[in-house]
Design brief:
55% helix; alpha+beta; two-stranded antiparallel sheet; two-stranded antiparallel ribbon
């Protein structure tokens, strides 16, 4: 009975809990003769995972540079791994994009306009020229990149076709008033 129990349970060297053997990672090594020997890790999975998380957080920058260096040295290997994974998961990108539309949109807004989620949410929900709530665009100065406000796609296109020129817009307005 005791011998069977010792095969099914093990004590963690970190937390000293006696747990079923399934709670320990299985490790293996090859000896000089090529024989594979398997054994369970001395730390339980919980302790091992906590240790790994802490190690990765403490050494984040070092690990990042090591991984980048490896990827740079092994570009063909990285490409073959990526291609193989994509062949095995052909719909993953589309499915992920479908599940994360708002996350993608916020990321694009941050990248293109340097707006936080709070700043984006504070923008008007209607075109500031005509009041339309359909096909809204974030209008920005193409030279400075500064966000000016929200326009519908028609007003945004019109502004773009007029070259964002205040003088041209005023001349066009006076031209319409003559009629």
């Amino acid at each position: 009975m005791c011998q069977t129990k010792s095969l099914l349970f093990k004590t963690c060297s970190c937390c000293n809990r006696t747990l079923p053997i399934d709670n320990f990672y299985i490790r293996s090594y090859k000896d000089k003769n090529g024989n594979i020997h398997k054994y369970s890790d001395s730390k339980c999975k919980d302790c091992k995972n906590a240790y790994s998380r802490n190690y990765n957080n403490v050494n984040k920058d070092t690990l990042k540079s090591i991984h980048k260096e490896w990827r740079d040295k092994n570009k063909t290997k990285v490409k073959s791994y990526r291609d193989k994974w994509r062949r095995e998961h052909p719909n993953y990108s589309k499915e992920w994009a479908e599940r994360n539309k708002s996350k993608i949109r916020l990321s694009q807004i941050k990248y293109n306009y340097n707006l936080t989620e709070e700043e984006y949410e504070a923008l008007p929900k209607a075109c500031e020229v005509c009041g339309s709530t359909k096909n809204l665009c974030i209008d920005h100065n193409h030279i400075t990149g500064k966000v000016r406000g929200v326009l519908c796609s028609r007003c945004n296109s019109a502004l773009g076709l007029l070259g964002d020129s205040k003088e041209v817009i005023l001349k066009l307005a006076s031209y319409i008033e003559k009629q």
